[in-house]
Each structure stands twice: as C-alpha cells, then as structure tokens.
Amino acid sequence: MLSEKNLIINCKKTLYPIVLCTLLLCTSSSVLAQSSNERDSLAYKLQSLKSTNRFNPKDTTHIKLVADLAFSYQYLDSDSLYSIANKALEYSREINYPHGIIRGLDALGSYHYNKGNREKAIPMFKEALELAKYIGDVDSELSIINTMAQNYSFEGNYAEALNLNLKGIDLAREINDQSTLSVLNENIAGLYADQKDFKNALMFYDTVQKFNRNLGNEVVDAETQSNMASLYKDAKDYKNAMFNINRSIVTFEKHKVYDWLAYAYQVKGDIYLDQKKYKWALYWYDQSDMLFKHHIEDDRIQIQLMNGMAKVYFGLENDSLSLIYAKKGLAMSNKIKSLQGQIDCSETLYKVHKKKGDNTEALAYLESFKTLSDSLFMDKNKQSLSLLETKLGYEQEKKELIEANEEALAKQRNYIYFSIIILLILSIITFVIRRSENIQKKLNRELKDKSKAVTQREAQLHEINKTNTKLFSIIGHDLRGPIGGLQSILKMFTEGDISTKELVSFIPKLKTDVDNISFTLNNLLSWGLNQLNGVVTKPKRFSLSYLVNNNIKLLSEISQSKSIKIINQLPENPRIWADNNQIDIVIRNILSNAIKFTPENGLITIEAEEKGDMWQISIRDTGVGMTAEVQRNIFRDSSNITTYGTNNEKGTGLGLSLCKEMVHKNNGEIWVESIPRKGTTFYFTLPKAQNRYQKAS
Length: 697
Hints:
alpha+beta, five-stranded mixed beta sheet, His_kinase_dom, nucleotide-binding, kinase activity, 697 residues, disordered N terminus
C-alpha cells in the first residue's frame, strides 16, 4: 500500500518541446488504461451478476464487487468513491454483513479524510477497526491501522501514528505477515524522517530492507529506495539520494509501475531543486506531472507539487508563474488545513512579492510564515517528545507484560516441581505395593484385556446393528415406495387395467422414480461401504473443473425443469489432490440438494478460492434456506429423515452425512451458512495438487 506522500497528482502544463509532450502523453494514456481496465473488469462482473434471473443487490458477492469498485475510484473520482461506498455500506448494514460494513466505512473514511473532514473520517475508521477486531478479521484490522497511522502522521499527530504502527507490528508478527511488517516499519521511518531524526529513520529503513530481501520483490524494494532517497535529500546527502532514486526509477520503468514512477520523478525533481539546478528540476517535475494528468485526485499531494513548481519558476525568474502556483498551493492548504503547506507556500509568496517590490503583500506573507513556523516549531518539539514518550511507554508496557509472564511461569515451575516430588513419593509407594501383588495384577490385566476385547466386540456389533437398522430404514422408507409404485403400474398394465397409451403417460413419473432410486442407491452403497471400512481413499491429481462440469451436465435436465441457472465461476483449471470418485459424490450431492431446495427461476453459483495450501469450494443457492437448528444437525449420521424439495422432490439426509465423511477422508473440512428464505451456501476445503506425492488420511 502506498504511503500518503507517494501519491502524485499533476498541477501544471509542461513547457518542454512537443516531442517530450507526445512521449509523456502516451505514457499517461498507459496509466489511465491500466486503471480503467481494473474498473472495467469490476463493472463487467457486476453487470454479469445483475443479468442473472435471481439477482439480489444485498447478496454478499454483489456487495464485495461494489466495495472493490468504490476503492478503484480512490484518488481518481471522489464523487464516485463516495456514492458507491455509501451504497456498499447501506446494503451491508441491511443484511448485517460485517466484512462489507468494514470495507464501506474504510472507503468513506478515506473520502472524508482526503477532503480534510477529519471529524467525520476518524470515527468511521475507529468503528471499522473495532468491528474487524470483534470478528477476528486480522487482514482488515492491519489495513485500517495502517491507513489511520498514515492519516495521523499527515496531520502531525506523530505520537498516535507511532502508537498505531507499533500495535500493528505486534499484530503482524503474530501472523508472520512479512509484507505488512515492511510497510509499518517504513511508516515509522517516515515519522522520524518528518522530525528530521535521520539516525532513527535510517535504523528503521535497515529493518525494512531486511524484510524486503526476505520478500524477494524488487518493486517493493524500489518503493523503499524512493522513500530513502527523499530522506537523504532532506539530510543534504545528494549522492546517496540520487543513487537510490535512480535505482528505483530503473525498476519502476522496467515493471511499468507508473504511480510509483511518478513519485520517483518528483523526488528526483526535489533533489535537483535543493541543489538549485532548476532546469533539471523542472524536467523531472514535468515527467511526474504528465504521468498523472487528469488521473489522480488528492489535494494533499498537489500542494507539494505546486509549491515545488513555484520554487522552480522563482529560481528561473519567471515570477508570474511562480506566483500562480504558490497561490494555488496556499488555497489548497487552507482548504484542507495543511499547516506545513501553508508555511511552505507563504514563504514562497513572501519571496516573490519582496522581489517584485510589493512590500505590503510581502510583509503580510512574512508575518503569516513567521506565525505558522513558530507554531509548527513548538508542535514539532512537542511531537518529538510525544514520539519518544510513546515509544518508551510502549516498550515499558511490553517489559511489564514480559515480567508478568515470567513471574507466572516461575509459579508454574514451582507447582511442577512440587507435583514431581509428590509423584515420586507415590511411585515409590506404588512400587512397594506392586511387588507383593504381582500375581493379582497379572490376573487383573488378563481380565481387563478380555473385558476390553468384549467391549470392542460389543461396540462393533452395536455399530453393525445401527448400520443395518439405518439401511433397512432407508430401504423400507425411500426405496420401497417408488419400487412398489413401479410394480403396481406394471401389474395393472400386464393385467390389462390400463392401456399402452396410459402407460406411456406414466413414463415421466417412472423415470423420476427410477432416477431417485438410482441416486439413493449410489449414496447408500457408498455410505454403507464407508461404515464397514470397505472404501480406501486413493488421492491423485485431478481437475476440479472437470468434475463440476460433469455434474452440471448430469443434473442439467433436473435444473432446467425448474428453470434454475447454474453459474460456474471457478478459476481457470484448479488442480486438486484427493480421491476424485469421492469428491464427485460430494459435488453431486450438494448440487442436487441445491437444485431440490431452490424454487423455480433460482440461481446456483459455484466458486473456489485459494486459502494457503487448500482450495475452498463454495456452492451457493437462492433457495429456501434453513434454520440454525437444522444447520447444527444436518451433517449428523443420525439425520435420516426424508426431506422434500420445492417441487416435492424426495430424498434422504444420508447424502450430507456421506459428504462429511468423504471430505474428512481427503483432509478437508465442510460447513454450511444459511439464512431462511434467502439461500444457503455449502463450503468445503480440499488440498491443492502439489509437485510432490501426498497422502490422504
């Protein structure tokens, strides 16, 4: 994630030759295309979702896409960001969808903060942060901590920014998130750089570079080099500044990372400006300006670029342009209450008016510059002290917690030592007693072994009896009825009670009954073999898409009869390491249930996403849903009650029990989420196929 100072926005027209303009405009078009492609992709997915027959704007899939679309407009179109984020938050609150609420609050908080309305932004960030903590969403928690820390840093509240970054570092360490650790340490380095504490800033940058080397991402490393170049520029170490910025520019140009490239161009311009090399500074400012023309919307970064341009034109003795850019920068600084921007632009305006001989205006800007500088100097001193106190306080807090843990461990060790002594005494007593009771113990052991064997045998008989009872129950309840009906119709036909034409009219019903009998028998045989340990799981590498497509075709006639649309949204060719026959049964059962319990004109969506070394597959329907009580009991072996679908389809509870056994045999998990009258989503996980052999349990 980019820090606030890394987001560059254009603010002027280039004065260089037409050839350079053409080149930069082409580059800018590439940037615009890159951003617009992302938004177009999101918009296309939204349109595809809305075109389905059973589209629901409050579906979580739709809300996720809306939130992503809102964030794609950040720094580009604040009005679109605001309206779309508001819609995502509204839908999420209506269905109490925590992740959507967090994302909506985060986007709206960013909108208000970028507009300078901190009174509205900070409560939104805090509400999102508390909700993320409550639901255990660590990724969102870290993201919001990072955003809040950057915003506090921008407004000069370095103590609160440091405190948030330190908390984020502890949280990122718990989950070993190397990427976030790099970002948060770089944030702290930036805090010290703003305070002109270059020694501590470089110390944290050393830590950041260690994380970057572990990540092995040269683009991330180049981002750090850009920030270090800015630090070296402030420290007047132009040699190291130019070395770092040139290395970062090469990487950004190689990978076409245009937003960071624009920032790097601006830093290079700042380095030349500091050395009074105005023409070179103007060249690099123009490079940065053209990359982001009409592309990014961020007043905070415009201030920095405008004041830089004002200083360049002042150095080139073009006072009229210098005055224009300095006034624009000051107006923006006043609008968003940027104290540093007001100071920088007031100083430039003072110099321009003094040079022009306009002493009244020059004196007014000088007084403003002096007053604001004195205020900032006092604030900087206070913030430096707060920064140190926050760090020391945080370290003291950690030290006290460590000492408390050590004290608790010491007490536990004493308890352990005491317990060991007691155990030794008891062992000696036991040894003495056992010496006189060897014969009796031997007899007891034999008796115990025999009793254990009897108990195991009794348990086996009980399970066999239970299995038989269930088998006969299913056969009697769910197979005898359809078979009896089939026998009755055939008997009536052979005895002449019904004609051939009448028999033909029964064929659709007979086909449905036979299909149900076949489906139930397949499940019954698979389950029975599992119960009697007759099935061995044989994992191998196979395509999940192949199984899903086969089952969609297999059940297409049933789904089409109810006008149910099945959407396959699997990624391109996910590879699974499992027993393909068993997983085929799982997919067929869950998909069949989804069709059975979804009303006509419904929608079933099949998706998969990577979760570490596992694939998480979801089958979502817009059916009748189920209560919390049903969800608790749905996977139990004892759940053999016949259920009926929306068109009175018949089936047993055996299928989901079988699914659970099959998924567990392949080292996965299965669960369900459902809302009555809104729909149900079944989730299950399976190992990814690797380039090495794996073994299922």
